[in-house]
Amino acid sequence: MSLRRRPKIGLALGAGGARGWAHIGVINGLVEAGIRPDIVCGTSMGSLVGAAYAAGELDRLQEWALSLGWRDVFGLMDFTLRGGLIRGKKLFEFMRARFGLQDITALPLPYGAVATELATGREVWLRSGHVLDAVRASIAIPGVFAPVLRDGELLVDGALVNPVPVSMCRALGADIVIAIDLGWAKLGYYRERAREQEPEADARRTAWWSRFMPARAEAAAAVESPDMPSALGVFFASFDIMQVRVGRSRLAGEPADALVTPILPDFAMMDFHRAREAIDEGHAAAERVRPVLEHLIGA
User: Fold this and answer.
1) From its phi and psi, is residue 34 left (phi > 0), alpha (psi between -120 and 50) or beta?
2) How far, CA to CA in Å, does 24 sit from each of 44, 47, 119, 191?
3) Residue 18: burial class (beta carbons within 10 Å; 0-12, 13-18, 19+)
4) Beta bridge partners of 112
5) Residue 58 gets which letter from DSSP?
């Protein structure tokens, strides 16, 4: 009688800006449960955390994330008005010097990142070249990070077309796919509950951004309705809506075998200085779905 082959486990790490730190907590929870993914795919922030895990650098990334304050975050931003608000060169030069990483084909685990071709809207799977170059393209939020030129194509954030890359995990050979959807609680009940529990959250996020353009923010506040959100607030809220709607549609047509849903409704896209909260919630989300995973995988 032949022995049953161990299924290949794929991990699809979704987009979500600063909420992406929750991926670290989820992965830690999976490893504690004896579940070690064989294939890792990521979109946007998920591509960064996925690259760190595939390279064996997750602990170092977690240590760095937990050390970030808002001043550190701003210190890594090189502002521009060409292609987006942030050029991204300063951040990724820092990442390259700190983590190094390597070519995608040399990683211990199969890895891929999702980006979007700006000219056509085509979904692009990044499976070769330097890891950080792929991550940089995958996280290029339109209007925030400048696009990336790769092989003659301008690439932007993969969340525009495939926020939770289950399909890529399947294509790379995963028998079972665990997906982490960071947009789960950004609309509907959880978002309304977060507003009731923390009504000052929107004001806090506006103040956070106004630190790099205080004069402009102050002038705008003097002439606009206090109930009117900032332009960035409208943009980020709209991007959240797009990401959630596209993500739910893709997951309906290409469902994961298990879905992990960190609940972070009050997290702004650029709240990278709140890593501890996100990591803790990611770990809690993994614990919530652990019985399902143990039944599915037999861990």
Assistant:
1) left
2) 14, 12, 33, 23
3) buried
4) 41
5) H
Which tokens in the block code for residue 56? 């064996």
State CA 219 to chain mean position distance. Answer: 33
Tokens for 149?
A: 């030129």
What is this structure's pTM? 0.85
Catalytic residue numbers, as ranges = 44, 157
Contacts 24+ apart (CB under 8 A), 117-125: 117/153, 117/154, 117/155, 118/142, 118/147, 118/153, 118/154, 118/155, 118/156, 119/153, 119/154, 121/160, 121/161, 122/161, 123/158, 123/161, 123/162, 124/153, 124/155, 124/158, 125/168, 125/171
| Under 8 Å between Cβ of 2 and 41 | no
In 3D space, the residue among 286, 221, 220 whose CA is nearest the CA of residue 259 turns out to be 286
Q: What confidence tens digit (pLDDT) does each residue in 176-209 have?
A: 999 999 988 777 776 666 555 555 555 555 445 4
Query: Which two tokens mark 264?
Result: 């972070």
Cα–Cα distances in angstroms (integers) from residue 246 to residues 168, 239, 280, in the given order: 16, 11, 26
CB atoms within 10 A of CB 97: 8
Q: Which of 295, 254, 259, 294 is nearest to 26 (CA)?
A: 259
The whole-angstrom separation of Cα 247 and Cα 241 is 10
